[in-house]
Structure formats: structure tokens, C-alpha cells
Amino acid sequence: MSTTASTSPPAHHPAPQASTAAAGRSRGPIAALVSVVVGLAFSTLSSWIFGTALTVLGDHTFWKGRGVERAMAAVEEDFGYLQGYPRSLMVDDTVALARDFAELVARPFRWLGAPAFIVRTAAIEPDVVANPHARAARRIVKEAGRVVETAIYVAQDTAIRLAIAFFALPAFAMAILIGLIDGLVRRDLRKWTGGRESSYVYHHSKRFAWWFLTAGFTAYLAWPFDGFNPAYLVLIFATLVAAAVSTTASTFKKYL
User: Fold this and answer.
1) Which CA distances in Å does 226 have to 8, 67, 81?
2) How far is C-alpha 190 from the chain's CA centre?
3) pTM for the predicted model, two decimal places
4) Which key words are in the record (predicted)?
5) Burial of 129 (0-12, 13-18, 19+ CB in 10 A)
6) What is the pLDDT of residue 29?
7) Is 28 exposed, middle or buried (0-12, 13-18, 19+ CB in 10 A)?
């Protein structure tokens, strides 16, 4: 007796989705530029909010009612630092551009009537009212005026420091170039001498290079204390960026 063997149709594997291939593609230059612009705007806004919060907190703790004066002094101090470097590879007059930046960020506050609000709240005397609830409300309004005034000065100082960061771009470009050249030389020496490769070092150094570029600017924009010369910050972080780029280039494993 003969039996007929039943055969099952071959299994068909689903074709990979087009979205998977697209997800593996690197971002184009336009997407990278948009990402940089959005990141810069977010860093500037967060630095202003963080700097204002720290100054207001210090106004009630270790500065004891001198938060507005400290914020005003920080603006004048950063202008003083810029006067020591009146020219840059980016612009001919660094102080004028920084003043334009400070004026630009102060305009929305004037449009919203912040100066008049500050003047009105400064004239409020909470202790002349006998009602405790009214006295507390007056103190809150008076404190709101000080917070707004602090926010204006911190915004201006953030704009000035953003201008200083813009002037420092040639220094970071030179640091990246020096680090890249040094790293590629060390990479060739490692290849010809049979040195060991490390993907771990490569990926971490690449991450640190980007972190030094962004975190340094963000920390400087939000720094609430005075007496910090930005030239030292540029020197420190440019050196760190050069070292990270050099390490990244020296451990790059693909063919050039």
C-alpha cells in the first residue's frame, strides 16, 4: 500500500521593513544643524532659568537680600572682562556685540511692562498695613518684583556670556584641529607598531568630546557667582576637548 507524503509549503520570512533601514541611516546635515540650534536654544533657556533660580535662592540664604545687586554686578563684571578683549576673529568690537545681545533680551521684558512693575513693587511698604493677610500679600508682590528684576539681569548676563562663547569658537576649532591631527598621528603609530585597539575607549572618548563642548558652555551660562574669568574656562575646556578628540581619533578602528 502506497502513501502520499504531504509536504508543507516553505516558510516565507517577512521582508525587512523600510523603516528599519531608514533608522540605521545617519542624520543629514540639515537635521544635524537643526539639532544643534535646538540644543543651543534649550541650553540658553535652561541656563537662564537655572541662573535665576540660584540667584533668587541666594537672595534668601547666603546673600541676604543682595540677589538683585549681585545679578547687576555680574553683568558689569562680564562687560569688564570683554573690555580686556575688544577684538575677536569673529567680530571687530566684542563689547558692542555683547551690548546688542543684552539689549535684545531686555526688549521682551519692556514690552511686557516689567520696568513699570518693578518700580511699583519697589515702592510697596508691607509693614504699614495692620492686616496680616494684606501684609503677606504685599510682601509676595514686592518679592515678585525683585524676582522679575533678577530675571532681567540674569537674562542680560546670559546673553553676554553667550556672546563670549561665540567669540571663543575659533579657540575650540583650533583645539579640535590640533586634537584630530595628534590623534591621527598616534593612530598610525599604533597600527604600525601593532598596538592594541579599544572600542570602549573610542566610544567613551567620543562621548566626552561632545560633553566637554556642550556642558562647559551650559555651566558657564548658568554660573551664578562672580570672579570667574571666562578666558580660564575657554582654556580649560579647549584643552579637554583637544584631549578627547585626540583620544577618539587615535582609537578609530575603521579605514580612512
Assistant:
1) 79, 12, 11
2) 35
3) 0.75
4) Membrane, Transmembrane, Transmembrane helix
5) middle
6) 62
7) exposed
